[in-house]
Design a protein that fits this description.
globular; 12 helices; six-stranded antiparallel sheet; single chain
Length: about 425
């Protein structure tokens, strides 16, 4: 007996890993390298597209708690991420190429995971299947999923540019993390005075954008978490200064003062040869990116390893069709995992793969579906996907707002978040012991 997993992204790899951990054979299908989506370029599994950051590391944060829950459930991706980390202050960031290589190596070497490098264009009729093809599912299979699930929703996602370290002007850039957290090698900072910022802002909001294909360009939905920097800028001249360019917690050692605005660069690889522009997801034309971003102090002669791109993402109207165990309500032998379910974020997607894999095995063994308590971040996100608004469903990332409040209420936010984490990990431990996970 085996379980089919379609897609070797973050969620698909976690699903296959959980199936194999349970002693069941996993047939893992991946269409790369025969075919690539518009945003993918590597033949390796678990390719990171938008950013190399997996968000905050502190277990008292929502993103940190999610990652710790995944570790407790035997996550492959968290093991690989911990091995491939690069300095990123209070966040967990990875060398994205090394990370994908390590995940691919682990998956390919497992004796119970059988990798098939071929595209699947039909939804399998028999057996148990996990579909983890992501928000860029190829057209043929996407059409079948849409027909089966009564349509899907779409939104646009964007990726930030990556530049080479040797092309940066370090006479204008200083290394520091906000409030000196995480070491000085975590971020490079490009400080702007008021005049420099205003010139940059004027150029950014008037720059030419790349055409949008395969979607209704007159009214594209853009997910807030990956809002293109030029779209964000149009909300007001100070929007960026209170967003990705906020200077708080930073002081320019050359002037001794806080800059008017700061563009941060975060390491892409462990060697520090590549950096991405933090918060600079964009859909500007490539020539415009080079022209406008060269106005940032220190990037005048930057060499772009990758320009920012924008692509369509699709996700199911999950509250209408999915159970909290990530199976299709009308067809419980068919599971979905990853961003296609409406969870937002790398680790959120991976966590849904963990649960889809666990529940696919339970289905095979004739056991009841396992849904983690809503006091856990993974459980709360799965319940959001199953029980959110059917008329206005939007992707959701890890946050403490989806978790039930504490009784009695704790007023101090830090103490409250720490208590959330303690409760979550306690409840998860009980579930792991009870179900021998």
């Amino acid at each position: 007996m085996s379980i089919t997993v379609i897609g070797a992204g973050l969620a698909g790899c976690e699903a296959a890993w959980q199936i194999a951990r349970a002693g069941i054979e996993a047939e893992l299908y991946e269409m790369k390298p025969a075919r690539y989506s518009p945003a993918h370029r590597s033949p390796n599994f678990a390719e990171l597209i938008c950013s190399n950051s997996l968000k905050a590391e502190r277990v008292e944060s929502a993103a940190g708690l999610l990652k710790e829950e995944m570790r407790q459930l035997g996550s492959l991706l968290m093991k690989c991420a911990d091995d491939c980390r690069v300095p990123a202050g209070g966040a967990l960031a990875v060398d994205r190429d090394r990370f994908s290589q390590e995940v691919t190596r682990e998956i390919s070497a497992h004796p119970l995971i059988h990798v098939h490098r071929e595209e699947i264009t039909e939804i399998p009729e028999g057996g148990i299947t996990v579909i983890a093809t992501g928000p860029l599912t190829a057209d043929a299979l996407a059409g079948k999923i849409s027909a089966l699930c009564g349509g899907s929703l779409s939104f646009f996602d964007a990726a930030a540019p990556i530049v080479s370290a040797e092309s940066l002007d370090m006479d204008k850039i200083f290394a520091a993390s906000r409030y000196d957290k995480g070491g000085d090698d975590a971020y490079l900072n490009c400080p702007m005075n008021k005049e420099e910022y205003e010139r940059f802002y004027a150029a950014l909001v008037s720059a030419q954008r790349a055409p949008i294909h395969d979607f209704d360009a007159a009214d594209p939905k853009v997910y807030e978490g990956c809002m293109p920097v030029e779209v964000m800028a149009q909300r007001g001249e100070d929007t960026l200064r209170f967003g990705p360019l906020k200077p708080v917690g930073l002081r320019d050692p050359k002037t001794g003062h806080r800059p008017w605005a700061v563009v941060q660069l975060r390491r892409e690889d462990r060697q520090g040869t590549l950096y991405n522009l933090v918060g600079f997801q964009t859909n500007l034309k490539f020539g415009e990116q080079k022209r406008v971003f060269a106005m940032i102090p220190g990037l005048e002669n930057a060499e772009f390893f990758r320009y920012g791109v924008m692509h369509r993402n699709t996700f199911l109207n999950s509250p209408k069709v999915l159970s909290a165990g990530y199976s299709l309500r009308e067809r419980p032998d068919l599971f979905f995992a990853g961003q296609i379910t409406g969870v937002e974020g790398y680790m959120e997607s991976a966590s849904s793969g963990i649960m889809a894999g666990i529940n696919a095995v339970r289905r095979l063994k004739g056991q009841d579906t396992l849904v983690l308590p809503d006091t856990t971040m993974i459980g709360a996100l799965s319940r959001y996907a199953a029980n959110g608004s059917e008329t206005d469903f939007q992707p959701m990332g890890a946050n403490f707002g989806v978790i039930p409040p504490l009784e009695p209420h704790i007023r101090d936010k830090r103490e409250r978040y720490a208590a959330f984490s303690v409760r979550s990990l306690r409840d998860l431990k009980d579930i792991i012991l009870e179900n021998q996970l």
